[in-house]
From TrEMBL:
<dbReference type="GO" id="GO:0055037">
    <property type="term" value="C:recycling endosome"/>
</dbReference>
<keyword id="KW-1133">Transmembrane helix</keyword>
<feature type="domain" description="C2">
    <location>
        <begin position="1"/>
        <end position="118"/>
    </location>
</feature>
<keyword id="KW-0479">Metal-binding</keyword>
<comment type="similarity">
    <text>Belongs to the MCTP family.</text>
</comment>
<feature type="transmembrane region" description="Helical">
    <location>
        <begin position="677"/>
        <end position="705"/>
    </location>
</feature>
<keyword id="KW-0106">Calcium</keyword>
<dbReference type="InterPro" id="IPR035892">
    <property type="entry name" value="C2_domain_sf"/>
</dbReference>
<keyword id="KW-0770">Synapse</keyword>
<feature type="transmembrane region" description="Helical">
    <location>
        <begin position="570"/>
        <end position="601"/>
    </location>
</feature>
<feature type="domain" description="C2">
    <location>
        <begin position="209"/>
        <end position="326"/>
    </location>
</feature>
<keyword id="KW-0256">Endoplasmic reticulum</keyword>
<dbReference type="Pfam" id="PF08372">
    <property type="entry name" value="PRT_C"/>
</dbReference>
<keyword id="KW-0677">Repeat</keyword>
<keyword id="KW-0472">Membrane</keyword>
<dbReference type="Pfam" id="PF00168">
    <property type="entry name" value="C2"/>
</dbReference>
<dbReference type="InterPro" id="IPR000008">
    <property type="entry name" value="C2_dom"/>
</dbReference>
Length: 761
């Protein structure tokens, strides 16, 4: 327990957000060591009412860290203590607890800055000296509410990390009369929204006063991150063997702040080749530290730790690719990386009054940047996207429990393009909110999809979903203000409300075409999908429909061979003879080109006979209904029906897997001499085919085969159609059949002669 003296300050139990607490996290002294090297990597969390409201940066390998970080926290109830917890950061493992303390806010004198030293304690070991934390605090009544904007860098609903962004707000009423940078913090793990003000501690009040004019210019348009860090994971060398076979199944985890990536797993190797690329947002001018850990994948149990390393971005020059060979700590081997720091992408938030495309000079600069003359400059910068989020109408009302009611909503809007996530301020108590915000993005892939989601803000709960739209960039009509009907989470059906957007896309077609042939940008790691009967059934039906296309095509060709329709078979026969006799390789892409041209002609002429695909849509709607039923009626009847449906799908998948596995095993067993007679027969057949292909051109062989297939029914109308190769393989036993047909040796103790000798009677 840490108290800060006493105070005569009277704290009325007034409205929420009545006080403003300015905290400067100075430093730590003699903190407890939690790492094997006798040091720690400490960071500090502030919690208020059980909710995390601030988290400091991590100071690596230091027991006397200096933070000098400032934060401004809005206080609802000053009678609730502020908890301070200090942790040792361990990437890849659970962070170690160093110690905690709390600050009694009622002991502070209003409008007076106080220096506080808090001794850290562990409730389980109250006698241990764990060090101390030095703070400067100032508690003052809060005067006004400021509009803020926020950036999401992780998945909105499922991430457990704090995400934030900046919007500049200059006011003479800021702390100590200085200009301040206001942040809005969202923590999905504890579902709390707070407003935080951060002021750089290494600048004086005078410096802030001179900068306030510049910041006021940026109040309506703010850039959210300072650069992009591109990391290419090339390979690993001589990694540590973690499995009993002397090998490993390695994969790599990356972390920069709260941004995380995970590479693919490469099985059974100590020298894996990944060739994967990941992009991080860089928020600090001086760089940051990328934590890298290597793991061995173990099915059914905890993965094994192979080693770790760190990349200090502050030591790397910008606009240059660096090849790094990073030896692994606490392990063996090294990783080979390519790291590139580039200038910030133009991702901004602004008011409608600041429109880049309406400013003629800025528009010309943007058009010049993506003109054909710059097609080979900065291939990752494909285009420019501007999204005007104007307003929404007739949104669904939601109360604090999240259930539909007649109350109002507190809507805000999230705009996402790949890993770039921005959002508007919240409009409270309104079903027809007006945001009037402009978001700009750099386009890395013209095939990306813009996602706009509307949520209802709940103070002490996760945000409630109100609706969503997904808009492919290539389908956007520039400069058109359009009302989009909001959809459900699966984007399969409408929900209540519409949102008005105006979107402009400018891109370089050559860059976009080249980027189309490169790997897609990987999204941040998200939670795995849960098992769903409807999802399993839907995917099975999708696969079945794709296979049925091939089967129907095979039936159609077979009907030509069977002369079910003589005119069609005759036309197919003549076409076959013409194509085979005159065949050249260029005819393959030419045929595909003609198919594309024919379908385009049908669409342009209005004769497009494509039917709206309702099967998958119905499946998606059933999946949405199943999610609702699982949430509401999980204890009700119908379990056996769902079990039978799952069983039906699983049996079908089981049979398909058996057929595929058996086909491969039969080919293997042919060459393994499992049945010598069939292997000798294969030798004879292959020898004959080798001689024929050596002396006779392939064109004539295909002609003979085709003529035989087309005339077989004419020569023998009642002949049974067959495929000689499949018929041959059907005689070769699979591995399961080999075991079934294997003769067991008789146990001598159970032979009849033994029984007679042992039992004379």
């Amino acid at each position: 327990t840490n108290l800060v003296g006493t105070s005569n300050a009277d704290f009325p139990s007034g409205d929420p957000g009545m006080y403003q607490l300015d905290i400067t996290l100075r430093r730590g002294q003699n903190l407890a060591a939690r790492d094997r090297g006798g040091t720690s990597d400490p960071y500090v969390k502030f919690k208020l009412g059980g909710k995390e409201v601030f988290r400091s940066k991590t100071i690596h390998k230091n027991l006397n860290p200096v933070w000098e970080e400032k934060a401004c926290i809005l206080i609802d109830n000053p009678r609730e203590p502020l908890y301070i917890k200090v942790f040792d950061y361990d990437f890849g493992f659970q962070d170690d607890f160093i110690g905690s303390a709390f600050l009694d806010l009622t002991s502070l004198e209003l409008n007076r800055q106080t220096d506080v030293t808090l001794s850290l304690k562990d409730p389980h070991y109250p006698d241990h000296d764990l060090g101390s934390i030095l703070l400067s605090v100032l508690l003052a009544p809060k005067e006004e509410q400021r509009e803020v904007t926020m950036l999401m860098r992780k998945s909105w609903k499922r991430s457990s990390k704090v995400t934030f962004s900046m919007n500049y707000d200059v006011s003479p009423n800021g702390p100590s009369g200085t200009a301040s940078l206001w942040h809005r913090i969202y923590s999905p793990s504890n579902c709390v929204l707070m407003t935080v003000c951060c002021v750089s501690s290494n600048q004086s009040h005078e410096t802030f006063q001179t900068q306030s004019l510049r910041l006021s210019d940026l109040h309506r348009k703010s850039q959210l991150w300072r650069g992009i860090v591109s990391v290419t994971l090339i390979e690993g060398r001589e990694l540590k063997a973690m499995d009993a076979n002397g090998l490993s199944d390695p994969y790599v985890k990356f972390r920069l702040g709260h941004q995380k990536y995970k590479s693919k797993m490469v099985p059974k190797t100590l020298n894996p080749q990944w060739r994967e690329q990941f992009d991080f947002h860089l928020y600090e001018e001086r760089g940051g530290i990328i934590d890298i850990t290597v793991w061995d994948k173990d099915a059914g149990k905890k993965d094994d730790f192979i080693g770790r390393c760190q990349v200090d971005l502050s030591t790397l020059s910008k606009e240059q690719t660096h090849k790094l060979e990073m030896p692994l700590e606490d392990g063996e081997g090294c990783l080979v990386l390519l790291v590139t720091l580039t200038a910030s992408a133009a991702v901004t938030i602004s008011d409608l009054s600041v429109n880049s495309l309406e400013d003629q000079k800025e528009r010309e600069e943007i058009l010049k940047r993506y003109s054909p003359m710059t097609m080979f400059h900065n291939m990752k910068d494909v285009g420019f996207l501007q999204v005007k989020v104007i307003r929404a109408e007739a949104l669904m009302a939601a109360d604090v429990t999240g259930k539909v009611s007649f109350s109002k909503s507190d809507p805000f809007c999230v705009v996402e393009l790949n890993n770039d996530r921005l959002l508007t301020h919240t409009v409270y108590k309104n079903l027809n909110p007006e945001w009037n915000k402009i978001f700009t993005f750099n386009i890395k892939d013209i095939h990306s999809v813009l996602e706009v989601t509307v949520y209802d803000e709940d103070r002490d709960r996760s945000a409630d979903f109100l609706g969503k739209v997904a808009i492919p960039l290539l389908s956007i009509q520039n400069g058109e203000q359009k009302a989009y009907v909001l959809k459900n989470k699966q984007l399969t059906g409408p929900t209540k409300g519409v949102i008005y957007l105006e979107i402009d896309v400018i891109f370089n077609a050559v860059k976009a075409s080249i980027r189309t042939l490169m790997p897609k940008e990987q999204k941040y790691i998200e939670e795995e999908n849960r098992l769903s009967k409807q999802l399993l059934l839907r995917n099975f039906i999708r696969m079945k429909r794709c296979v049925m296309v091939l089967i129907n095509a095979a039936y159609y060709i077979s009907s030509c061979f069977d002369w079910d329709s003589p005119p069609r078979s005759l036309a197919a026969f003549l076409l076959f003879l013409f194509v085979v006799w005159n065949f050249e390789l260029y005819m393959i892409p030419l045929a595909l080109l003609l198919l594309l041209a024919w379908n385009y002609f049908l669409i342009v002429s209005g004769k497009d006979n494509r039917q709206h695909d309702t099967v998958v849509e119905d499946m998606l709607e059933d999946e949405e209904e199943e999610d609702d039923r699982d949430d509401k009626d999980s204890e009700k009847k119908g379990f056996m029906n769902r079990l039978y449906a799952i069983q039906e799908v699983c049996v079908s998948v089981q049979n398909i897997l058996d057929e595929v596995a058996s086909f491969g095993e039969r080919i293997k067993n042919t060459f393994n001499w499992t049945v010598p007679f069939l292997s000798w027969l294969a030798i004879v057949a292959l020898s004959v085919f080798t001689v024929i292909l050596y002396f006779i051109p392939l064109r004539y062989i295909v002609l003979v085969w085709g003529i035989n297939k087309f005339t077989k029914k004419l020569r023998s109308p009642y002949a049974i159609d067959n495929n000689e190769l499949l018929d041959f393989l059907s005689r070769v036993p699979s591995d399961v059949q080999v075991v079934q047909y294997h003769e067991l040796k008789q146990d001598p103790s159970h032979s009849p002669s033994k029984r007679k000798k042992n039992n004379p009677s």
